[in-house]
Design a protein that fits this description.
The protein is mostly beta strands and 124 residues long. It has a domain of 59 residues: Beta Barrel (OB fold (Dihydrolipoamide Acetyltransferase, E2P)). It has one helix and six strands, in the order αββββββ. A six-stranded mixed β-sheet has the order 1-5-6-4-3-2, with no helix packed on it.
Length: 124
């Protein structure tokens, strides 16, 4: 389901968005500053504390082999792919649109580095 959301121009950094482009956003519910705090807040904190431990940390492991889609190129010229939960995988030598099979070599909290083990056959 696609929903169109109007964003006031005062809330947008100039040149950060392009007209007629599609962007993914998250809408988070939070109490307004005029609403009094309720007793539900401690309960919601307790619920967050019982999250599935498998969802914590990076969604990939070192040595894992997987197919990725390169979305863009970083400042150093490396391909950048995003996997589960928006986790970034940097792939040297890859270009936007490539769909290589990569091996994850190094995993950090918010980014992983991978090498190409099999190139996208459509790129040949």
């Amino acid at each position: 389901m696609n929903t169109v959301i109007e964003v006031p121009s005062s809330e947008v950094d100039h040149e950060a968005l392009t007209a007629n482009e599609t962007y993914r956003v998250a809408l988070l519910d939070s109490p307004s500053s005029t609403e009094p705090a309720t007793q539900q807040e401690p309960e919601s904190i307790a619920v967050r504390g019982t999250m599935d431990p498998s969802s914590a940390g990076p969604p990939i492991d070192e040595g894992e082999v997987r197919d990725v889609t390169i979305e863009t190129v970083g400042d150093q010229g490396d391909g950048i792919a995003k996997v589960e939960r928006g986790y970034v995988v940097i792939v040297p030598g890859a270009q936007p649109g490539d769909e290589p099979t990569v091996e994850i070599e190094q995993v950090q909290e918010n980014v992983a580095f991978a090498s190409i083990v099999d190139t996208d056959p459509r790129a040949l």
